[in-house]
Amino acid sequence: MAFAARARFAHVVVAALIASAAGATLGQEGERAPATDEERLAAIERELRRETEREHQLFGLARARVSYPQLASVGLGMLIGERSKAYDCTIQCEVDGWLASVEAGVGGAVWSLGPAYLIGELGDNKYFLSRRYMGYSVRGSVMRTWGDTPYRPDREWHAGVEGQFTVVSLNLTMGVYRRIGEHGRGEPWLFSGGIGWGF
Amino acid sequence: MGLLTRGSRVATFALGALALALAFASPARALETDQFYAWLRPLADSSDALNAKINFELDAALAEINAVNGGRNASCRDALEAIHDRYTLFIFQKIELWAQRTSVLNRIPATQEEELEYRRNWIYGGVAWYDLGRTVPPSPTIEVDGVRFGTDKISHFFSEGHYYLDWYDGARARGLSHDEAVEFATRRGIAIETTVLGGVISGVISPADLEANYQGLRWYIDLCDGETPLLERTDAGWTMREPFDLRPYVSPEWDESYLPNVVLEGRWKHVKPAILSHCAELDAPEVRERRAAYAERDQYTYTERILDTMVAAGELQDPRDYGIERLCAAAAMQAVRTDPEKGSSPQ
Fold this sequence. Notes:
The complex is a heterodimer. Helices cover about 20% and strands about 50% of the residues of chain A. By secondary structure, chain A is α+β, with helices and mostly antiparallel strands. In chain A, helix 1 (about 1-20) runs antiparallel to helix 2 (about 35-50). By secondary structure, chain B is mainly α. Chain B is built from 13 helices and 6 strands. Chain B has helices at about 5-25, 45-65, 75-85, 95-100, 110-120, 130-135, 150-175, 180-200, 205-225, 265-275, 285-295, 300-310, 325-340; strands at about 140-145, 145-150, 205, 230-235, 235-240, 260-265. In chain B, the strands form 3 sheets. Chain B has a two-stranded antiparallel ribbon. A two-stranded antiparallel sheet of chain B has the order 3-6. Chain B starts with 5 loop residues before the first helix and ends in a 9-residue tail after the last helix. Chains A and B meet through helix 1, helix 2, strand 7 and strand 8 of A and helix 1, helix 2, helix 4 and helix 5 of B.
């Protein structure tokens, strides 16, 4: 884990600098070389600045939910996000980026893309965020209905906007869609909503 | 009513569920912590590093405010809000996310491996799988000015302290005096802790959290409304009269192993044995020394005074009944009764 190694290295460097201020560091000749308070504070300041630097990382996401009009569905997503350069996401981190996802269910499928914010962690997993503590996204979505969708004719295309909010993996979604294409019947607007697990 | 199909009703339900989740989640702005876990572990002071971070964000907030017309269009409260936004978020606070990850703070657990071990063995680690204590990460312990506390207290200081300020402002607008408004805000914070936060969401009523909330209120009031407000407008824009220092606000009451939580029944059966497992550590020199130092600087705080009136009125269980000394003494007495041979004090 390159990120973890980097984070550990940074921790060791900063810890050494801070320890040196307490007079614990030995110089090359074995002499005590205590850093001053100013040096220690400058080291902290440098690290605080480094923590504001961001870098990109790709995260995998999954969700399962019951919703209308998809009924039961499962989805997979990719979050291309920015996080602090100073530490990886093995334990909790915040990620700001773009989420692309595809979700298929009994009543249809949805493709979505939009900005997202998430606090989560990878844990032992390298790519999939195993825990999602809090997150939200608003995404442009395209939906294709099929099968037994109650109160809707099947095989329709819809385009719309969907918002989702997750707290401790409890996922809530809401969306509004409008039918696209010429062949549809009845009400052109469709309101979607669901509750489930994941992000 | 073409729009009100069954699908719309489902969407309405989802909207309602979302609103409910937000309503419940919005006060749940901080996490649980365990200072017993850190008792026998060495921990260096983090005052300078924590103050440096808080001042780093303060400077950034004021730079933002002063970037527009040198801050001349901004009121002191605008500056205060910009400062608040640098530390807080929603449920999980920015300052605490930082505190859990940064390399500049000394904390327990210190590494990712220790963090995973902490999650297994902290005092709330044995609660039911669906319990929030198992699903959100516990706050690590840091030390400031000789006091050990969870990083959740920093969240409470900046986030809950700001809620207190809103309630304080509301009370002042209704004509209450400063003292009355402070009491109103503090009592409302306690009411939320003992009902929604502690009573429903976490099952833990934390007087230590309430102490940090109250100190946050003090700081927020001092920013713009103190006798000499900490924020001042200069030719260079809004500035702090002096750098922030958390130490005057920290007290032994922030340490949850010293000022115990009231733990509600469902959780208590899991938490009590975990606390009792630390009884033997009460005799460890570093623990005795720390608790003696705490006792020496312990004061009867504003929040404790209000909590005591609630205990006296039967509105709250006495937090002292959940303290480790009392629990260990009771366990020792129980052991004596059951088996006089083995009944020596666990302390």
